[in-house]
Structure formats: structure tokens, C-alpha cells
Design a protein that fits this description.
Layout (H helix, E strand, L loop, with lengths): L6 E7 L6 H9 L6 E6 L4 H9 L4 E3 L6 H10 L5 E6 L3 E2 L3 H9 L5 E12 L2 E3 L3 H10 L11 H8 L10 E4 L16 H10 L4 E14 L4 H7 L2 H10 L5 H13 L7
Parallel strand pairs: 1-2, 1-4, 2-3, 6-9
Antiparallel strand pairs: 4-8, 5-9, 6-7, 6-8
Helix pairs in contact: 6-7, 9-10
Length: 264
């Protein structure tokens, strides 16, 4: 049985984000207090100051910065079997850790646990949109406990896009490959990970409650990758893992239009 000592929020900090303190505050306000660390490839006084204020151990990554590298470094700094990669711009609702731990303990071999999520546009919560509704529809079959170990169900949930929100995920490291993320993609490395994990023996555990909010803003890496067309190219690579090439191209044409809602 996992306890609160078995989980770590690994906050990935980059540059001087105006939102990092809001993220750290949301972790301090969890109903169940677990471990919190900060991992960065861009150490600076602002990050050090907040690490000290929130009593979060600060780890400096070695090697060339990059999303996959930074996420893998964040995981490697943790000493616990359960890890949530907390993105510096996002916030976690107070029940996140408590519900996560309870549901993780329901399964013999959990792979990942993830919750539903909302968005923050500026500081305004938005828990309902067309894109969120589509993702919830795709994930709906995973609400059933009996579907958690079904390779077919989880691959169908991933076949039309990355329906799982990366910062909403908690990883059970002993049951996953190492490294958790491959570093050959810039944008869809999370979708790539879900696809890889979907083939493994074990459980995908989905909590349909909104337990975190992902911030949408012009300065985000996602927005930048959408603008230079990286996202569309990588989406096609991922869709071809589920569909024949002509169908993948057809779906990608529709899917790319939804990316406008990811921009600030």
C-alpha cells in the first residue's frame, strides 16, 4: 500500500515564470501533504528564492536542456515510486494527492493515474470547452474499473489525439520503462509515452474529477510549437501508430484545427 511518503511532486521550473509561485502554493495547500521538489535546467535567483520559501529541495539538471530531458531529469531526482511532473504554470486542486493515492492503492499493478483537468486562461478557470468535451468523451470508457487493464480500451482512447493531460498524470515508476520519456519529439512526447505504456500489462487509472488546471498562455512551449507547425507534424507521426496512413492524414487535418484553442 502506497502512503504519502511514496509520492513526489517534481516541479519543472524554467526561466523566471510569473506563475511558479502559484503552482508551489497549490502543492502546499494539498489536503494530503506529500513530497515536493523543484527541478530546473535554468537555475536563477527567482527559482532559488521560491525553493527556499516553500522549503522545496532544488535540483539542477545536467546535460542539454530539452523537454524530454528535463522531464526525465525531474523523475530521476525523486526518491519515491510515485511521481507527478508538475508544470510550473499549472495549479493542482487540494484533493489531487489524496484521491490519487487512494485510487493507486486500488490496483495491483498501476502504470499511470490521471485526472480530468480544466484550463486557466490568464487567471480565469475554464473547465468546459469543445476540446475538453472531446477528451472527456474519449476517456469515458476508462471510468469503468473493469477497463483499466484493457489494452484495446486505452488505445482507442488515445487513437484520435492525446486525450490524457500530461501534468495531470502520476507515474508508478517501478512498473514503467526507464527512461519514462523518449527524447526524439518536442511536443508529442507525452502522447508517445501513453502509446508506449498502453501496450504494457497493468492499469490506467482515470479519475473523472477536475483535479488540476493547465494554464494556456502565449509564453507556453505548447503555443510556440503550434505556431511553427511542429505539433501538426508530430501529431501525424502519432496518429499513424493507430491508423493506416490515409486515415491518419485525414484525422490530422481535423485535429490540427483544434490546436487554436491551445493558444493564449
Amino acid at each position: 500500500m502506497f502512503t504519502k511518503d511514496d509520492h513526489t511532486f517534481a516541479v519543472c521550473a524554467y526561466g523566471e515564470s510569473p506563475y511558479l509561485e502559484q503552482c508551489l502554493y497549490s502543492l502546499r495547500e494539498q489536503e494530503l501533504h506529500t513530497n515536493v521538489i523543484i527541478s530546473t535546467s535554468t537555475p536563477n535567483d527567482a527559482i532559488r528564492r521560491l525553493a527556499k520559501r516553500y522549503k522545496a529541495p532544488l535540483f539542477i539538471n545536467e546535460g542539454e536542456p530539452g523537454i524530454g530531458h528535463d522531464w526525465n531529469c525531474a523523475i530521476s531526482h525523486c526518491q519515491t515510486p510515485l511521481v507527478t511532473i508538475a508544470h510550473q504554470d499549472d495549479i493542482y486542486l487540494p484533493a489531487y494527492a489524496k484521491i490519487m493515492l487512494s485510487m493507486m492503492n486500488e490496483e495491483e499493478k498501476p502504470l499511470i493515474w490521471f485526472s480530468d483537468y480544466g484550463e486557466l486562461r490568464g487567471d480565469v478557470p475554464c473547465d468546459d470547452s469543445r476540446l475538453l468535451a472531446i477528451k472527456r468523451l474519449l476517456l469515458n470508457p476508462l471510468k469503468r474499473v473493469s477497463s483499466r487493464q484493457s489494452v484495446f480500451v486505452r488505445r482507442r482512447a488515445l487513437s484520435l489525439g492525446s486525450s490524457i493531460c500530461c501534468p495531470a498524470v502520476t507515474y508508478c515508476r517501478p512498473n514503467l520503462p526507464d527512461p519514462v520519456f523518449l527524447e526524439n519529439m518536442k511536443c508529442d512526447l507525452d502522447w508517445q509515452a501513453w502509446e508506449r505504456f498502453s501496450r504494457l500489462e497493468g492499469s490506467y487509472i482515470y479519475a473523472p474529477q477536475v483535479l488540476m488546471r493547465h494554464r494556456i498562455h502565449e509564453g507556453s512551449e505548447t503555443t510556440a510549437l503550434i505556431k511553427d507547425d511542429t505539433r501538426t507534424k508530430e501529431d501525424l507521426v502519432m496518429l499513424r501508430k493507430f491508423w493506416p496512413a490515409p486515415i491518419a492524414r485525414f484525422i490530422n487535418g481535423f485535429y490540427s484545427k483544434s490546436q487554436a484553442s491551445n493558444q493564449g
